Amino acid sequence: MNKPVAPQRSDFDAYMVPNYSPGSIIPVRGEGSRVWDQADREFIDFAGGIAVTSLGHAHPELVAVLKEQGGKLWHLSNVLANEPALRLAKQLTELTFADKVLFANSGAEANEAAFKLARRYAWDIFGEGKHEIVACDSSFHGRTLFTVSVGGQMKYREGFEPVPGGISHVPFNSCSALEAAIGPQTCAFVVEPIQGEGGVTPACATFLRKARELCDKHDALLIFDEVQSGVGRSGFLYAYEHYGVTPDILSTAKGLGGGFPVAAMLCTDKVAGSFKVGTHGSTYGGNPLACAVASKVIEIVTRPEVLKGVTKRSDQFRAALEDINKRFDIFKEVRGMGLLLGAQLQDRFEGKARDFMQAGLEAGVMVLVAGTSVMRFAPSLIIPEADIDEGMARFAAAIEKTIATMDADAGAA
Description:
By secondary structure, the protein is of the alpha/beta class. It is built from 14 helices and 17 strands. The chain has helices spanning about 10-15, 50, 60-70, 85-95, 105-125, 145-150, 175-180, 205-215, 240-245, 270, 290-300, 305-330, 355-365, 385-410; strands spanning about 25-30, 35, 40-45, 100-105, 130-135, 165-170, 185-190, 195, 200, 220-225, 250, 265, 330-335, 340-345, 365, 370, 375.
């Protein structure tokens, strides 16, 4: 019998909507923070599936719980409760500010639920006039029509207008602009404690404290989008703990499932009651398979050595990036928190982030971008220190080669 022909990168162009532009390799297996492609070429993973594979690839405890639950029960829908969902909800409420949890499948869905709940709560308590949502420039909250409207990047709304109204934006970290924007008509202010897609930029503590103060003053809800910054990535279970500012609603996804699709909206009792039976829903949200895996992720991430290790590994990443910068003068700034880090390129490399990302792939290291001029790093929270050293050596070699090529091209021109 002939062996089936393995799918090729060209099959993407042949059969899939051209919504993405995937790289030339096709990974087929992973272990820890290393990935192998069809040709058995090895890569060190500093991308983490965009901050998703929080415990690396094929973590044995996650594989075990997935197999165990897979042999029991996959799906029921929310017509019935299930044990893994109830267990996970209890964990999340005991570990955070939240009193109640609503499960979904993705960060966009968790944010959609958060925004709908904010409007529904305001409608219930204050009437339909109090419906406006304030968000930040350069923010990212998902790709549904509502979430791209709340997100502060026009490029994601282009061609999809008219978008939902009642939404305004302020400059990130501007207290004066926030004070001018939040008023009696505001039902919610939504913010990422660390802007991910917007350049890996942490919020100022004064900005978040002002947001809490203004929301309290005007009976508005404070929503933290922790889809990217949550589940240990900041060195805290959720980044709001670092700031000492507590939201009314929080969205979480990405790292929550360690690679298995799952998301949640966390909220206080004060607002939870506005989602009465039938006001919102999700067919797959809270399914037993996803919740069993997420429950194990939370159990592992909250082990003291894991959260402490995030800070240690963050320092190691920063030191390596500083060393690269001394050699090549490539970065303006390295910023972020924990293992969500961004390196802003110098002006002479403006718009070249993808060139360095591709060069990294060719050198055997997977990195990310955040916009056109920021390199982003979001590896496993438990990435071995030796992998950080080796991956950074590969990245440095990729930078050296790319800069040499750029300089040669400039000289030839």
